[in-house]
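Researcher: I'd like a candidate sequence for this fold, 488 residues long. If you have to choose between options at a position, lean toward the conservative one.
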């Protein structure tokens, strides 16, 4: 499902040349084109990947660039991937290390980094013997990728070409569980901080790239459905209601009729669950490029499908691919919500604004929390639930109506009603286990109440290094800046 074509790359290539910053010197102009093209390629591919593969893709891209620039070699990449997998050293010196980590460290001491073959960590075991308490603290740290490296910090910082990679490999060898966070930090340093930010391409950006013969293909995960967002956007172009067909047995005829009708009228057509009609999808290349029919330039085709190994390559290589999946991490979750659902108009929707804005932030925070809990498996929720954007939309719609009514009738807010509506009905309709219901309602009770308007309210119950507060800004941009300052 990740297949792309030379034609798609060439579109990005020419766009990179046309829209990259100009420069007086040729070498500067070339560098601008390279930077622009690299970032556009990354964005284009990244939005069509599932969350589990995004860091891997960025890391492959980053490492390939460093190899091309003769900063790294294949052996360095092998060290990053395999570490001490081929080592079996039984002479472990430190009882606070497990055998796997010790083997990783031994491999690190023997490895020659870069084109110069620098044995950077040759004296690592000696350093760990001399400064055992410092290394133990480094090993036990919650975030070793951000800690000062005992004895090696200045040397790593002094190496401007390899320093970030040396630190990344060290974290990977000592604390494999922090590899993904360390990878994102490494990518941000080597390429640009923009590569470390969550990518939230909005439907308007995707539509701007689409054409009558270049459909938008949404790769679905459980609980994801872009139909509502497409319909909302269609209203701006007076294309609502869109024409929809849910694919399956004998639905090819109605779908084809809608497409051909759309060629004439310029309407938008949505074909859902297209993995159920693969033969029809194989014909789509020919259908969307008719020889003897004039196609209305406003016509658009939107396709949703689950990943399928037999999906036709021709369609994959002509369509704009997007995935719909909750991103990983509180920061990424809030970023997605405030880039897709919450806008300047949204935060000015209900008066008094100083009540509506904090409540919006609190409910969006609740949404990100319960989505993030899924990664903890059975200790997150007894059963996995696919909470999605429509649950948040419905909850916020109720809050909006309730607050508006209370303002008009000069009544106090009924927090218990809001908690019940959000936690027991909108989200709670999916919850089957009593323990999960109690857990969700606890979040609702903590985050949807009068206390959230106080200046000292924190989402975390006890102080942490970073305390999750509710900001109050009159403008949408300030909210995005606040969210981007959250820890990864």
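Model: Candidate sequence:
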């Amino acid at each position: 499902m990740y297949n792309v074509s030379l034609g798609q790359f060439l579109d990005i290539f020419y766009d990179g040349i046309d829209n990259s910053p100009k420069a007086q010197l040729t070498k500067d102009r070339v560098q601008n084109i390279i930077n622009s093209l690299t970032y556009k390629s990354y964005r284009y591919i990244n939005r069509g990947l599932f969350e589990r593969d995004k860091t891997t893709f960025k890391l492959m891209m980053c490492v390939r660039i460093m190899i091309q620039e003769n900063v790294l070699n294949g052996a360095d990449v092998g060290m990053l991937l395999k570490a001490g997998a081929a080592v079996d050293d039984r002479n472990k010196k430190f009882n606070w290390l497990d055998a796997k980590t010790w083997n990783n460290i031994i491999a690190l001491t023997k490895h020659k980094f870069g084109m110069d073959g620098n044995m950077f960590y040759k004296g690592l075991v000696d350093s760990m013997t001399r400064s055992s308490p410092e290394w133990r603290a480094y090993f036990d740290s919650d975030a070793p990728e951000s800690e000062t490296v005992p004895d090696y910090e200045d040397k790593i910082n002094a190496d401007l070409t390899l320093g970030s990679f040396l630190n990344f490999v060290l974290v990977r060898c000592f604390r494999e569980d922090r590899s993904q966070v360390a990878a994102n930090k490494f990518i941000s340093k080597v390429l640009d901080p923009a590569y470390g930010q969550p990518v939230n391409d909005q439907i308007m950006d995707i539509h701007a790239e689409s054409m009558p013969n270049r459909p938008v293909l949404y790769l679905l995960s459980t609980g994801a459905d872009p139909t509502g967002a497409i319909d909302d956007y269609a209203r701006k172009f007076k294309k609502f209601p869109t024409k929809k067909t849910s694919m399956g047995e004998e639905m090819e005829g109605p779908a084809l009729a809608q497409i051909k009708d759309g060629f004439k009228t310029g309407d938008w057509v949505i074909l859902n669950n297209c993995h159920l009609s693969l033969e029809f999808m194989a014909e789509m290349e020919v259908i969307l490029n008719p020889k003897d029919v004039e196609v209305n330039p406003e016509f658009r085709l939107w396709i949703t499908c689950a990943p399928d190994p037999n999906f036709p390559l021709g369609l994959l290589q002509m369509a704009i691919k997007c995935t719909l999946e909750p991103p990983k991490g509180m920061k990424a979750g809030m970023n997605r919500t405030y880039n897709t659902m919450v806008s300047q108009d949204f935060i000015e929707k209900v008066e008094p604004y100083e009540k509506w804005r904090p409540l919006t932030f609190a409910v969006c925070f609740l949404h990100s929390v319960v989505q993030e809990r899924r990664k903890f498996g059975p200790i997150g929720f007894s059963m996995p639930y696919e909470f999605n954007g429509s649950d948040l939309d419905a909850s916020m719609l109720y809050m909006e109506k309730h607050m508006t009514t209370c303002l008009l009738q000069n009544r106090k807010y009924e927090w218990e009603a809001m908690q019940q509506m959000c936690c027991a009905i909108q989200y709670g309709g999916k919850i089957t286990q009593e323990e999960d219901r109690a857990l969700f309602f606890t979040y609702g009770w903590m985050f949807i109440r009068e206390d959230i308007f106080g200046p000292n309210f924190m989402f975390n119950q006890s102080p942490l290094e970073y305390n999750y507060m509710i900001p109050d800004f009159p403008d949408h941009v300030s909210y995005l800046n606040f969210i981007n300052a959250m820890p990864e």
